[in-house]
């Protein structure tokens, strides 16, 4: 009795040459995509359309059209070819790299859409701002196990004067450091008119700054003479925290 070959009974996936001509596979920097012929031909002057018509264009071992580019960012290029528009996630931060990819694939419409979607001004100044604050904790009846609130006495701002003004605007108090007419000078004497550290962080984030480093220290002690109305227990626990923000 002849036993049939199992391999012959199992359906085999079609090779690239046997696949329907309207379905194409791409290899972009090692990341594989599947799309239709009509999608790649959506922009006739684009590199994907030219690669489809060029029999000499590089292909991988499985016959997939190969582009030696960023495979992850190509998803947005392919979405643009499919839909004719650009939709980026809210946390997207690689606008410059995606614009470069669009330029490489000869898609001026995508390049313009990326630039318009970039929330950062094209000529925005780079720099570093350090925010620090001194504060103290107020304790309840159970001491350390019952911390009531964090009291900030003042939020300090250090950095380039023009940069600090651009970020904090009217909330910046410059009374201790009047303008001496030098546009590129630095200062460590600014402070904010409010004592909400979260508000300061929001303003930095809105202007494209990212937190890169932080440090903190604390002391436990007491002054011999306290100002009227100052709680002695609260005065014992002081701390200083500093945060470094950078915009590239």
From TrEMBL:
Broad class of where this protein is predominantly found: membrane
GO cellular component, one term: plasma membrane
Pfam entry (one): BTB_2
Keyword Transcription among UniProt keywords: no
Domain Potassium channel tetramerisation-type BTB: 25-110
GO BP terms, alphabetized: protein homooligomerization
Keywords noted in UniProt: Cell membrane, Cell projection, Membrane, Phosphoprotein
Record protein name field: BTB/POZ domain-containing protein KCTD12
Organism lineage: Eukaryota, Metazoa, Ecdysozoa, Arthropoda, Hexapoda
């Amino acid at each position: 009795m002849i036993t049939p070959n199992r391999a012959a009974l199992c359906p085999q996936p079609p090779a690239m040459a046997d696949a329907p001509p309207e379905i194409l596979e791409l290899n972009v920097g090692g990341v594989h995509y599947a799309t239709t012929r009509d999608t790649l031909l959506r922009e006739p002057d684009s590199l994907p359309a030219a690669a489809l018509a060029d029999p000499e264009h590089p292909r991988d071992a499985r016959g997939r059209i190969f582009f030696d580019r960023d495979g992850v960012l190509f998803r947005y290029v392919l979405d643009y070819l499919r839909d004719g528009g650009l939709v980026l996630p809210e946390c997207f931060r690689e606008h410059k790299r995606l614009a470069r990819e669009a330029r490489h694939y000869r898609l001026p419409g995508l390049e313009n859409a990326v630039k318009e979607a970039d929330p950062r001004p094209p000529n925005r100044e780079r720099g570093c701002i350090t925010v620090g604050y001194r504060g103290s904790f107020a304790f309840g009846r159970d001491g350390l196990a019952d911390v009531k609130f964090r009291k900030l006495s003042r939020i300090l701002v250090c950095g380039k004067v023009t940069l600090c003004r651009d970020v904090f605007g009217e909330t910046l108090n410059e009374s201790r450091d009047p303008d001496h007419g030098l546009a590129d000078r630095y200062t460590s004497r600014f402070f904010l008119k409010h004592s909400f550290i979260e508000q300061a962080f929001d303003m930095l984030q809105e202007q494209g700054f990212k937190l890169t480093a932080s440090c903190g220290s604390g002391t436990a002690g007491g002054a011999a003479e306290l100002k009227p109305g100052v709680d002695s227990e609260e005065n014992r626990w002081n701390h200083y925290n500093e945060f470094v923000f950078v915009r590239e």
